[in-house]
């Protein structure tokens, strides 16, 4: 039929019956996701203390958009539903809308996501700022096409029963997660980006995701780097504002690591820099601002001696002069080693 933009049609929507002369406009396939961490960490009132609304067919009809062919190509259906900020505590009524591909139910009072298991065509799902404390019955494991999932600002403390065979991006910012159990490659074979900022993690142990490329762990209470040797394809590791005093735990198996941010930790001296030699061949950008080490004399030179291939340090490009000085110092150190009896 071609473009549906501006088209006035009669459409049969599963669960609603005819929706007459509904003006359609093709909207972007992604909702805005620029929430701040403060918003994710805001207090959520319990459903017993707030006024909640029942999800009605009228509410659903107002939130539907983006008319597309159904998967079998034999009909058309609305595939995008926006139900954010509707004061909902139950979404059972959407379980019959099996053609949905994009769903936003953020900023409600949801605790149970099991109705989502029937939405087998979902590609994109946003459940931010609800009251989900656990995931019952593995609802996402049945969503074979779901590629993007955000559950930021909920009440999760662990990741049992969380799975996504096609997930590429998973955002769990601002929950209360203490352990990373359940993050296995068998459950997340295609996961590329994992966002876990603002949780309660004290270690990196438990992330067994060999295809992961970007890992964001800022604003936790991480004291130990553990299990990172399993992340052989990781390119970005973000550990800002944790409690690290060493970089022990980096692994030579991390053969793709290009960006490391450990700003605002407790790294004291050059001894910690020795651990960076394990990733020196690939690391191109390093952020160490906010660590005691930065206050030492010739700090940048010390880093470049360990990481001669580095291109950016603390957001500033490495200058030609700095690189030459580092090479000269490396040469001097080698000569000193040779001359020692």
TrEMBL record:
<keyword id="KW-0966">Cell projection</keyword>
<dbReference type="Pfam" id="PF13855">
    <property type="entry name" value="LRR_8"/>
</dbReference>
<dbReference type="InterPro" id="IPR003591">
    <property type="entry name" value="Leu-rich_rpt_typical-subtyp"/>
</dbReference>
<keyword id="KW-0969">Cilium</keyword>
<keyword id="KW-0433">Leucine-rich repeat</keyword>
<dbReference type="InterPro" id="IPR032675">
    <property type="entry name" value="LRR_dom_sf"/>
</dbReference>
<dbReference type="InterPro" id="IPR001611">
    <property type="entry name" value="Leu-rich_rpt"/>
</dbReference>
<protein>
    <recommendedName>
        <fullName>Leucine-rich repeat-containing protein 23</fullName>
    </recommendedName>
</protein>
<keyword id="KW-0963">Cytoplasm</keyword>
<keyword id="KW-0206">Cytoskeleton</keyword>
<keyword id="KW-0677">Repeat</keyword>
<dbReference type="InterPro" id="IPR050576">
    <property type="entry name" value="Cilia_flagella_integrity"/>
</dbReference>
<keyword id="KW-0282">Flagellum</keyword>
<keyword id="KW-0175">Coiled coil</keyword>
<dbReference type="GO" id="GO:0005634">
    <property type="term" value="C:nucleus"/>
</dbReference>
<dbReference type="Pfam" id="PF14580">
    <property type="entry name" value="LRR_9"/>
</dbReference>
């Amino acid at each position: 039929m071609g473009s549906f933009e501006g088209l006035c049609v009669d459409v049969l929507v599963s669960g609603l019956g005819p929706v007459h002369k509904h003006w359609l406009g093709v909207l972007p396939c992604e909702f805005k996701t620029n929430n701040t961490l403060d918003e994710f960490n805001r207090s959520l009132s319990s459903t017993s203390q707030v006024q909640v609304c029942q999800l009605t067919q009228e509410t659903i009809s107002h939130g539907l958009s983006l008319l597309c062919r159904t998967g079998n190509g034999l009909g058309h259906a609305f595939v995008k539903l926006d139900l954010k900020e509707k004061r909902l505590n139950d979404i059972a009524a959407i379980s019959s809308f099996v053609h949905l591909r994009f769903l936003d139910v953020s900023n409600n009072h949801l605790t149970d996501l099991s109705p989502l298991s029937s939405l087998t065509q979902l590609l994109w799902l946003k459940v931010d700022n609800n009251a989900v404390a656990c995931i019952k019955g593995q609802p996402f494991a049945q969503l074979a096409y779901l590629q993007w999932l955000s559950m930021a600002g909920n009440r999760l403390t662990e990741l049992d029963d969380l799975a996504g065979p096609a997930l590429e991006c998973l955002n769990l910012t601002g929950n209360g997660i203490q352990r990373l159990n359940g993050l296995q490659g068998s459950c997340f074979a295609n996961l590329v980006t994992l966002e876990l900022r603002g949780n309660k993690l004290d270690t990196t142990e438990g992330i067994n995701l060999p295809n992961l490329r970007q890992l964001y762990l800022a604003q936790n209470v991480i004291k130990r780097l553990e299990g990172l040797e399993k992340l052989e394809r990781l390119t970005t590791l973000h550990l800002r504002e944790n409690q690290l005093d060493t970089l022990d735990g980096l692994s030579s198996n991390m053969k793709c690591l290009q960006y490391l941010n450990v700003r605002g930790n407790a790294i004291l001296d050059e001894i910690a820099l020795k651990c960076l030699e394990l990733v020196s061949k690939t690391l191109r950008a390093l952020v160490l601002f906010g660590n005691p080490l930065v206050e030492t004399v010739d700090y940048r030179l010390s880093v470049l001696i360990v990481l001669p291939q580095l291109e950016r340090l603390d957001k500033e490009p490495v200058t030609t002069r700095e690189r030459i000085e580092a090479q000269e110092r490396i040469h001097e150190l080698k000569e000193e080693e040779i001359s020692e009896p």
